[in-house]
Structure formats: C-alpha cells, structure tokens
Amino acid sequence: MADVMRMKEFEVTADQLGIDLTQLDLDSIRLPPGEDCGIVSDDEDVYQGDNLELNTGFGNIIIVDNLPVVPREKFDKLEGVVRKIYSQIGMIKEDGGLWMPVDSETQKTLGYCFIEFNTPMEAELAKEKTNGYKLDRSHIFAVNMFDEFDMFMKVPDEWAPPEFKPYTPGAVEEVAGGSPTSVVAWDEAMEEGEEWSGGAGRWVGNRLGIGSLDLRKKMILTYQKQYLDWDMGKLKDFGTFLGVLFEGFEEDFTGLLKDIEDRLGEGVGHAAIAGVILRENLQHWLTDEKARDQFVIRAGSDTEVLWNDARHLKPEPVYKRAFWTESFVQWSPLGTYLATVHRQGAAVWGGASTFNRLMRYAHPQVKLIDFSPGEKYLVTYSSHEPSNPRDANRVVIYIFDVRTGKVMRDFKGSADDFAIGGTGGVTGVSWPVFRWAGGKEDKYFARIGKNIISVYETETFSLIDKKSLKVENVVDFSWSPTDPILALFVPELGDHPARVSLMQIPSKDELRQKNLFSVSDCKMYWQSNGDYLAVKVDRYTKTKKSTYTGFELFRIRERDIPIEVFELENKNDKIIAFAWEPKGHRFAVIHGDNPRPDISFYSMRSANNADKVKKLTTLKGKQANALFWSPAGRFIILAGLKGFNGQLEFYNVDELETMATAEHFMATDIEWDPTGRYVATAVTSVHEMENGFNIWSFNGKLLYRILKDHFFQYLWRPRPPSFLSPEKEEEIAKNLKKYSKKYEAEDQDVSMLLSEQDREKRKMLKDEWDRWINEWKQLHEVEKLERQKLRDGEVSDEEEEYEAKEVEVEEILDVSEEVLSDNF
C-alpha cells in the first residue's frame, strides 16, 4: 500500500509546485486508466457499507449448546462425534475449526462448543439442520449463530412496549406536497431529537449524489446563515449528502431556500426544507411535451436509456453508464424504477432529469428479481452450491420493501423445497417462485408446493389463516391479472378426473369448477382485464397413441361464470400459439401441422350478444409461429421467429386486412411500446451478426435502424394505467378527428422543420464543396510558376485544348518460309 501523505506535507508539496489548493476543483481530477489509487468508486460504495454490517467476520461460526459434560479422558471421543455430525453438512476449518471450552478447575467440558465453517452459508445450513437434534434422550442440541450473541445480549430483562415513531420518509412526501400541518409535525419530530447523522442523514445520502466541492461549501455556508441553531455536525452531514437540487437552482442555493419558503410559508425548519429538496418527481418522464416513450438497451458493457423520437427518425439519449449492471436490467411494472443487479445485491434508480440511485437491497450473488404489480415489493433470488456434493443446492429468497429497503420476509431452504413437478434441484425451480395477485394493492402472493398452495398476505407477510391451502396433486396455478382469484389445475389421479377450479382469496371459496377427462396437459391464459380465462386442454384419443386439443373458455364477469367448450374445425391441428387481445374480447390461434400453419381469429361476442364464440377469419399458410398483440388491441404482428428468420406481418383485426409485410432477418425479440404506436424488433447476441434493433410504426413502416455489437437487451419503459375512465376513453376515440387536427399541425411543423434542416444540410454540403474547389484553384495558381519552371519556361496551362486519339500501326518485323513434308 502506498504511503499516506499528511495534510501538512500535502500543502507544502503543493506550495513548492505552485498549486493553489483553494482554486483546485477536486471533482475535475481524472485518474489514469486502470488506476484507482485506493479510491472507492461510486459503484463500489453502493454495497460497501452493507458488507461491513452484514459480514462482521463471525457469520461462519455457530455455537452448539447442550453437549454432554465430559472429563478429559472422553474429550476426544465427544469431539469426534460432534465433528462427524457437522462435517457431513459443511467443511470445518482445520486449525481450531472446532473448539470445546474446558473448565480450568474441574477439567471438564462446559457443555457447548464453537464450530467454524468455510462459508456463512454452511453455518446457516448447519444451524437449520441440527437445531433440535437429539444426541440422546438427555442432550438435544440448541444451535445459534455466533453473530446472534450481540442481539441476545441487547434484549432487556423487562419487556416494554415499543415507542411509536412516525414514518419519516412518508412525512417527507407530505412536505413535498406542501401540507403546512405535516411540515410542522415532521419538523417538530426532528427537533425532538432525530439526528441527521442517523437515519435521516443516511436517507438523504441514499437518494442524492454528492455535488462539487465548491457547491457543497456554498450550500453549507448559506444554510448556516439561514439556520444558526445547527451545530457543525448537522451542517457537515447536510452539506456532504446534498448534491442534487431542484432544476434551475443549482447555481443559487439561496434562491432555492427562498423559493421553498415562499411555497411552504416562513418559519419552516430545516427538516421541511430538506423534504422539498429530496422529493423528486419520479413520474417526470410522463410529462414529455412530445409524448414520447423511453426504452433501455444493453450492448457490450454499456447500458443506455433513450427517448424514441420517431418524428426525427432517431433515438435521443437520456442517460448512459458503463458497467451499470453485472447481468441484466429490469423496469418496474409501472415504469417508476429501473433495477440493476450486482454481486452484492440489487439497486433501483430513477429521478426527474437523470437516474439517481434511490435504494439498494443487499443480497449476495442475487440471480433473479421480480417486482410486485404495484411496485411496493421486490423479490430477489439466489441459489448456492453445497459444500457436500450429495446435498441439494440452497435457495435464498428475500422480499424487500422497495422504498425503505427493509426485508419484509425471507425464505431459505434446499432447492428441492422450491422445485415443482417431477424435476428436483435448481432446474425444477420455476421463476417467479412467488406469484403476485393482480392489481396495484399488492395484497397477496402465493407459491406452489407438494399438494399445497401457500397464499400469503402482505399486511403481516404470513399465511392467510396461518395455514396453506391443501389441494391434492396440484401442479399449477395462475392469478387473475386484476382480481384476487386463483385458477388451479389438478391432473388426473387414479379414478379422480382432472379439474380446473377458480378460488376466491382470502375467503378460499370455490367460485367455479370444471372436471376434465383423458387429459395429457393443460395451460391457462388470462385476458389482461381478467374478463376471460382460456384453458388449453390436450386430451388423449381413445387409443392413447395421440392427442388432440380443445379449449375451455370461462366468462369471469358473467353470472355463475359460464364455461364454453371450444374446438377448432380440425381438432387434430397442433396449437402453436394462443394470445388474447389486450383489453379486448378477441383471441388469435396459430394452428396446423404444415410448415406454413394457419392463423384464426375469434371473438367472445357474437350477434345479439349471445354467449358463443364467433369465428372472424382464418389466414391460410402463414410464415408465423408467434403472436404479438398491440397493448391497445386491434393490431397484431404475425411473427415468424427462429426457423422463419424474422418474417413480420402487420395485421389489422378490425378491418381483417394486412397492412404491411416485412422482414427483420434473424430477429429474436419483438416488443410493442406501452401505447401501441411503435414496435421494436431486435437481434440479440444469440446471433453473432446483425446485432441491433429496428423501430417500426404500428402499421409496419420502418422508421429507423440501429446496429449495436454484442446487443443483449431491449426494454420499453412501462407506463402506469390511464386515470381516464373507460367511458372517457371511448368518448375521446369517437371524437378523435377533433383532436387529430392539433397533432396533424404539430406533425406538419415537424415535417417543415425537418425539411428546413435538410435544406440547411444540403446548403452546408454545397458550401463545403465550393470551399474545397476554391482552395484547390488557389493552390493551382500558386504552383503555376513551379510548373512553368519544370517545363523550361513553356506555359502549358495556356495551351489550346486538344483531343488525344489512339491509332494502331502494324509493322512486319520478319518473314520466314518452311517446307513441310506430306509424309505423316
């Protein structure tokens, strides 16, 4: 490690070199490539604090209590027994890995021992498997983690009810809303003893970056003038953590304070003002004047967020960062957060004008993440290989509160405990392990086990009625996208037929059930509004040598949930793909055994509103194996991926006509934007060539194409649901022509602007060409004397024009005669 220079020596050296430290901007200093000089980067410090808290150095040690008390003669035998038990679970360190204290007076053991494993995971597994282990009738192991000792020692001898404290971040939000009552209440709470260097200070630091050195000094000095009651500790914390201020006030912190006081009223304290500064509008991107959508891409080591500027036929950069994530990124369901994944855990990012880190979630070696539909909770998953090859992989799942970072519930166990179906181990774990009930409330989540479905509620994060739902032989379940309704599938077992049932949560009342016979397989498809449920049932023929497919269609919103049995005209056709129209009543099916299958469209509504499926049309012999409905319905892409090499057909289901056909060669992914106006097709790094993405209009017009080497991900940023009622949306759709004039005028202005820009570009190119010609003419004149000198004074530049012709002239060089004999 390099020697550390004291500040005095630093100042002397700077003075010798003629450097004025007071004029030095530390933020402008750039280290040489590949050098960190021991300075922790912004990405590294995300989890450094967590490592100090989580890994105290004793996480791999357990304490085993209730061992037999034995004399010296039996010490080795007891140690051998304990070592044999625990060496089967994990690797015990050789030097002092098992220590059994001995009473110095009696020379007998004290009835407990310390065992140190190689990893904390092994120690946790040992505790889990041996706590309560019966060595004999009198000795039952009590196993604890060594890290838990401090926690036990802090437990008071007498119980006292916990002191109620208001939720501070919630108060900050109210402050941002400008409620005078909440401003005063939170400020008073802060004055009663909440220290900035504690929770509030860390909360500030989690959400905001650190500004330049000059800006921090200016903020501290200005704030000290406004609030002289602050001691230096509070001033230092505040100045260190605050770096991102309201847009437009970065240069004048005094102006920011005045602006806040004008809005909240005079006399507010430092806590209230901090609340306003901290509060960023995480939905600011929805207020874009051009009504554009954002998307994120990953290519190489870079992750980039961009606007889709279709009018200008190019993307507009928003934020770019190298090594932002170590595996993938993921938007939250409503688009508020962008999640990144790291070795130490996950983090979420967002902000009004850029992407600040809002919260981090410590989970070492996290592999997968999943948000709840309302963005309140984040589920993280990791699996770890056991030290003993005979044991199964260990699975760890955390459920975090997204906004506070608090672990609400954890689930740990072997991979077999989380596997479903007949497959064991990690390969049998289906993600997401926990499936969330539909809606923004995030009230329920569930997972499937052997003959049970465990349904949890988020108020206490415990099982509903404190017990799992027992369903013999259940193999799959699915939540309604909008309601707390579970759809369960139970295959045939002995003389009992297979069945699909709908169950209401939390009452666990069965709403509807359908028995099915000769079932080979079953898959469930919910319509996005939860109005319909389609159950695709593969059945055996009478000979059991082949299968055929039919559908059971549930009408959820109608009385008694009627069920309609639906089969294709040729029920032996293979079903390749099925998809509901979002927010609609139609569905599409790709079916057939030919290389070019057929595509049929059906409606759940028929003439006179009869409850019967109506066929709309069938498209014969299409190069398609996947269906991609527009989120707004009506339009669909019939896509031929994989073997069809990216064939695309843009189809209008209202008019039952093809709008366009196109191809994106080797396309692997297709993503509609959340409004249904544009669609992206991408070639990811699965293929080595042609990596990048294309942006199309909804009717199949190619707008622009971007090539990116090592392209990994393309994700549109989701939008929250509209606040308009269905009736209002329908009214707007009917009067669209009235609104369209405004947007047509805007489009015309943009078109004229683009035309003007094109004219300016052509004029610039012509001017550049003329400038280049003039430069060469001047050079030609400058070199004229030199050319004349080389030609002995002849002025060749003034010669008349002449025409060069090529004339061939034949000349006989030699003639020879030779007499040939006629004898062959």
TrEMBL record:
One of its GO terms (biological process) is formation of cytoplasmic translation initiation complex. InterPro entries: EIF3B (IPR011400), eIF3B_RRM (IPR034363), Nucleotide-bd_a/b_plait_sf (IPR012677), RBD_domain_sf (IPR035979), RRM_dom (IPR000504), TIF_beta_prop-like (IPR013979), WD40/YVTN_repeat-like_dom_sf (IPR015943). One of its GO terms (molecular function) is RNA binding. It comes from the Eukaryota. Keywords: Cytoplasm, Initiation factor, Protein biosynthesis, RNA-binding. Gene3D superfamilies: 3.30.70.330, YVTN repeat-like/Quinoprotein amine dehydrogenase. SUPFAM superfamilies: DPP6 N-terminal domain-like (SSF82171), RNA-binding domain, RBD (SSF54928). Residues 60-148 form the RRM domain. Pfam families: eIF2A, RRM_1. One of its GO terms (cellular component) is eukaryotic 48S preinitiation complex. It is found in: Cytoplasm. Component of the eukaryotic translation initiation factor 3 (eIF-3) complex. Belongs to the eIF-3 subunit B family. RNA-binding component of the eukaryotic translation initiation factor 3 (eIF-3) complex, which is involved in protein synthesis of a specialized repertoire of mRNAs and, together with other initiation factors, stimulates binding of mRNA and methionyl-tRNAi to the 40S ribosome. The eIF-3 complex specifically targets and initiates translation of a subset of mRNAs involved in cell proliferation. PANTHER family: EUKARYOTIC TRANSLATION INITIATION FACTOR 3 EIF3 -RELATED (PTHR14068), EUKARYOTIC TRANSLATION INITIATION FACTOR 3 SUBUNIT B (PTHR14068:SF0). This is Eukaryotic translation initiation factor 3 subunit B. It comes from Fagus sylvatica.
